[in-house]
Amino acid sequence: MADVVIADDEVANRMCLALHLQMGDHAVRAASDGDEAVRLVEQATPDLVILDLHMPRLDGIETCALLRSLPQMATVPIILLSGADHDELRDRQPLPRFDAMRAKPYDMYDLWRLVAQLTHAT
Questions:
Q1: What distance in Å separates the CA atoms of residue 118 and residue 39, rounded to the nearest whole number?
Q2: Domains along the chain?
Q3: What are 66-88's pLDDT values in tens digits?
Q4: Is the full-model pTM beyond 0.85?
Protein backbone atom coordinates (compact mmCIF):
# COMPACT_ATOMS: atom_id res chain seq x y z
CA MET A 1 0.00 0.00 0.00
CA ALA A 2 1.31 3.42 -0.97
CA ASP A 3 0.57 6.85 0.50
CA VAL A 4 -0.43 8.94 -2.51
CA VAL A 5 -1.01 12.69 -2.79
CA ILE A 6 -3.20 13.66 -5.72
CA ALA A 7 -4.03 17.12 -7.06
CA ASP A 8 -6.78 17.94 -9.53
CA ASP A 9 -8.93 21.07 -9.61
CA GLU A 10 -11.93 19.19 -11.04
CA VAL A 11 -13.88 17.66 -8.14
CA ALA A 12 -15.24 14.71 -10.14
CA ASN A 13 -11.79 13.84 -11.53
CA ARG A 14 -10.22 14.11 -8.08
CA MET A 15 -12.89 11.94 -6.47
CA CYS A 16 -12.70 9.32 -9.23
CA LEU A 17 -8.90 9.15 -9.05
CA ALA A 18 -9.00 8.90 -5.24
CA LEU A 19 -11.60 6.12 -5.43
CA HIS A 20 -9.60 4.18 -8.02
CA LEU A 21 -6.46 4.40 -5.91
CA GLN A 22 -8.32 3.42 -2.74
CA MET A 23 -9.75 0.41 -4.59
CA GLY A 24 -6.12 -0.57 -5.16
CA ASP A 25 -5.55 -0.38 -1.38
CA HIS A 26 -3.64 2.92 -1.45
CA ALA A 27 -4.02 5.71 1.10
CA VAL A 28 -4.96 8.96 -0.63
CA ARG A 29 -4.64 12.58 0.39
CA ALA A 30 -6.38 14.84 -2.11
CA ALA A 31 -5.69 18.45 -3.04
CA SER A 32 -7.77 20.79 -5.17
CA ASP A 33 -4.75 22.66 -6.52
CA GLY A 34 -0.97 22.71 -6.63
CA ASP A 35 -0.55 24.92 -3.58
CA GLU A 36 -2.57 22.52 -1.46
CA ALA A 37 -0.60 19.55 -2.85
CA VAL A 38 2.68 21.19 -1.78
CA ARG A 39 1.26 21.77 1.72
CA LEU A 40 0.18 18.12 1.99
CA VAL A 41 3.64 16.94 0.93
CA GLU A 42 5.31 19.28 3.44
CA GLN A 43 3.14 17.81 6.22
CA ALA A 44 4.10 14.21 5.43
CA THR A 45 6.20 12.90 2.56
CA PRO A 46 4.13 10.56 0.37
CA ASP A 47 5.27 7.52 -1.58
CA LEU A 48 3.91 9.02 -4.80
CA VAL A 49 2.35 12.23 -6.15
CA ILE A 50 -0.13 12.42 -9.03
CA LEU A 51 -0.73 15.87 -10.53
CA ASP A 52 -3.23 17.12 -13.07
CA LEU A 53 -1.34 19.07 -15.70
CA HIS A 54 -3.94 21.83 -16.05
CA MET A 55 -4.82 23.52 -12.78
CA PRO A 56 -5.38 27.22 -12.13
CA ARG A 57 -2.78 29.29 -10.28
CA LEU A 58 -0.13 26.56 -10.00
CA ASP A 59 -0.33 24.02 -12.81
CA GLY A 60 1.08 20.50 -12.72
CA ILE A 61 4.46 21.49 -14.17
CA GLU A 62 4.91 24.36 -11.70
CA THR A 63 3.77 22.16 -8.83
CA CYS A 64 6.18 19.42 -9.92
CA ALA A 65 9.06 21.94 -9.99
CA LEU A 66 8.18 23.18 -6.49
CA LEU A 67 7.95 19.62 -5.17
CA ARG A 68 11.31 18.71 -6.72
CA SER A 69 12.87 21.66 -4.87
CA LEU A 70 11.97 20.03 -1.54
CA PRO A 71 14.79 17.78 -0.27
CA GLN A 72 12.35 15.04 0.83
CA MET A 73 10.95 14.84 -2.72
CA ALA A 74 14.23 14.04 -4.49
CA THR A 75 13.32 10.39 -5.03
CA VAL A 76 9.52 10.41 -4.68
CA PRO A 77 7.89 9.52 -8.01
CA ILE A 78 5.59 12.03 -9.67
CA ILE A 79 2.98 11.19 -12.32
CA LEU A 80 1.37 13.87 -14.51
CA LEU A 81 -2.18 13.39 -15.81
CA SER A 82 -3.50 15.41 -18.72
CA GLY A 83 -6.67 15.48 -20.72
CA ALA A 84 -5.01 17.73 -23.30
CA ASP A 85 -2.43 17.32 -26.02
CA HIS A 86 1.03 16.56 -24.60
CA ASP A 87 2.73 18.52 -27.40
CA GLU A 88 2.54 21.64 -25.25
CA LEU A 89 5.27 20.20 -23.02
CA ARG A 90 7.81 20.83 -25.78
CA ASP A 91 7.27 24.56 -25.26
CA ARG A 92 7.79 24.29 -21.50
CA GLN A 93 11.56 23.82 -21.30
CA PRO A 94 13.27 22.96 -19.11
CA LEU A 95 10.79 20.57 -17.55
CA PRO A 96 11.15 19.39 -13.97
CA ARG A 97 11.75 15.66 -13.59
CA PHE A 98 8.60 13.58 -13.48
CA ASP A 99 8.44 9.82 -13.70
CA ALA A 100 5.45 9.15 -15.93
CA MET A 101 2.64 10.84 -17.78
CA ARG A 102 -0.79 9.44 -18.56
CA ALA A 103 -3.63 10.82 -20.64
CA LYS A 104 -7.12 11.23 -19.30
CA PRO A 105 -9.17 9.21 -19.32
CA TYR A 106 -6.67 6.77 -17.88
CA ASP A 107 -7.05 3.02 -17.63
CA MET A 108 -7.53 2.08 -13.98
CA TYR A 109 -5.55 -1.17 -14.28
CA ASP A 110 -2.68 0.60 -16.05
CA LEU A 111 -2.66 3.18 -13.27
CA TRP A 112 -2.52 0.47 -10.59
CA ARG A 113 0.38 -1.22 -12.41
CA LEU A 114 2.20 2.09 -12.75
CA VAL A 115 1.71 2.96 -9.08
CA ALA A 116 2.97 -0.50 -8.07
CA GLN A 117 5.98 -0.15 -10.37
CA LEU A 118 6.91 3.34 -9.14
CA THR A 119 6.38 2.56 -5.46
CA HIS A 120 7.82 -0.97 -5.71
CA ALA A 121 4.58 -2.34 -4.25
CA THR A 122 3.62 -5.90 -5.03
A1: 22
A2: 3-119 (3.40.50.2300)
A3: 999 999 999 999 999 987 666 66
A4: yes
